[in-house]
Amino acid sequence: MRYAEEELIGILNNNGVDFTCSLPCEKIGNLLALIGENFFHAPLTREEEGVGICAGAALSGRRPAMFVQSSGLGNMLNALLSLTGFYELPLAVFVSRRGIYKEKIEAQIPMGKRLPAILKGAGISYSVIDGRDDFSIIRKSLPGVYKKNGIHAFLLSPKIWEKSEIRSKKIEVKMQLEDTGVHPSSFVLHPSYPQFTRYEILKIIAPYLDSKAIVCNLGFPSKELYHIRHQPSHFYMLGSMGMATPIGLGIALTSDKEVVVIDGDGSILMNPGSLATAAYFSPERLTIFAIDNGSYGSTGDQPTFTKSCVDLASVAAGFGIKNTIKVADEKGLTDVMKSSGEGFRFVHVLAVPGNKDVPNIPLRHLEIKRQVQEFLMRGY
Fold first, then answer.
1. What residues form DSSP beta bridges with 21?
2. Tens digit of pLDDT for each residue in 290-313?
3. Residues with Cβ < 8 Å from 20, sequence gap 6 or more?
4. Which residue among 55, 69, 106, 116 has the highest number of C-beta atoms inside a 10 angstrom radius?
């Protein structure tokens, strides 16, 4: 008879799951070890970034699943609603439900007890899996996640794994990160001062975006890019601030297309751990193009910390991104874009604050998704 962990792995395989993300939980440690052995697996710094990475993978046609604990689902909620649910992308979330069964950490109890009510209030479908007999619920519900492009959370009681003798096998946990050869790095400086607004920068780089998958930050950046040069390969974000880099990383890990993320200082500061995850994988075809104007441009130009105390190029290098470049002038911008596709880079672009008065994007969100998916599914 198979152990519970092995049975769940079989269910995932039977449903074509082919992309996984997780953060550790000791209650499902052996399950996570098997996940790492059986599927492509991305370790995370925070659960929210996993939603973005899985969204990118889903755009490329993958069937993603996440493995988190109860508190982690709280960290994911906004992205689940404004990204995964909004764009109708599939995601199965397997939640190690802490705080309800022989819990020794009292801080886990509030979230564990309230999780069903939170999910119900958010309109996210879920199933309570109290024992191995309830795996029939997973078998019944999981196919619909991928057929209907929905979200479903499976709340897994620690009781499921309690008597599993698979622990005696002393499975080596595959989530130990291997040395990728990417070490603390230096960045190339093209000394200059901010000369252009974001709109002017986008005009300079737009001719170099052809045949690339573009993930553009929400608000004015997406509106400006659409106004300058719309292409079906552009994924315009309409919500979920902080998710541009994770989405681009997810596409880069699952597609043969060259990917350019047009991100911003406020967005990166909201989810900086994504740079560590990107550095770990260092996809050859990914460029993170961080336009830093020192302000929250879409909400009234309130200053970000890059205006006073944070240098994004140094942050990226500190997270292990080996090829980090700081530019501001036109020659630096064009040189960077001409060399795209030659390895993973973080391009820190110094910019002048300000927005261009352009109309809203006339495309509906599902049309944006459809166009991007069609581009990603096409060969060169």
1. 42, 66
2. 999 888 777 777 878 888 899 999
3. 35, 39, 40, 41, 42, 64, 65, 66, 67
4. 55
Residue 19 contacts by C-beta under 8 Å, 6 or more apart in sequence?
39, 40, 42, 54, 57, 62, 63, 64, 65, 253, 254
Burial-class residue 184 by CB neighbours within 10 Å (0-12, 13-18, 19+). exposed
Q: Is the dihedral of CA 226, 343, 269, 352 positive or negative?
A: negative
Q: Report the predicted TM-score, pTM, of the whole model to 2 decimal places.
A: 0.93
Which helix (H) or strand (E) element contains residue 96? strand 91-96
CA 380 distance to own-chain centroid:
25
Domain count, the chain: 2
Residues 243 and 139 in one domain: no
Question: Is 323 in contact with 346 (CB distance < 8 Å)?
Answer: yes
What is d(CA 301, CA 322) in angstroms, rounded to the nearest whole number?
A: 31
Q: Which of 75-84, 92-101, 299-308, 369-378 has the lowest mean pLDDT?
A: 299-308
194 and 233, same domain (yes or no)? yes
Amino acid letter, 309: C
CATH number at residue 212: 3.40.50.970
Distance (Å, whole) CA 205 – CA 313 = 19
């993978």: which residue's tokens? 57
Are both 220 and 152 inside the same structural domain? no
Is 207 a domain residue? yes
| HSE (side-chain half, CA atoms, 13 Å) at 224 | 23
Do the Cβ atoms of 122 and 81 come closer than 8 Å? yes
Task: Classify residue 175: in a domain, yes or no.
Answer: no
Query: Is residue 43 assigned to a domain?
Result: yes
What is the token pair recorded at 45? Answer: 């710094």
The C-alpha R_g of the chain, in whole angstroms, comes to 21
Contacts of 14 by beta carbon, 8 Å cutoff, 6+ apart:
none
Beta strands in 142-247 (DSSP E): 151-156, 187-189, 213-216, 234-236
Residue numbers of the domain that contains 300: 187-377
H/E element, 56: helix 47-59
